[in-house]
Amino acid sequence: MATIPGLEVILDFITEEEEQQLITELDAGHWAGRGIEPNPEMKRRHQHYGGVFSYRLRRVVGDMEKLPGMFDFITERLLQRRIYDRSPNSIIVNEYEAGQGIMPHVDAPKLFGKTITALSLLSACVMTFQHVKDPNQIYHIHLPQRSLVVMNGSSRYDFKHSISKDLIENVDGLEIVRARRVSITYRDMLVEDRQQDRESDEAGSSCKELCGNGISSCTRS
Question: Rounded to an integer, what distance in angstroms lies between the CA atom of residue 89 and that of residue 69?
Answer without folding.
Answer: 13
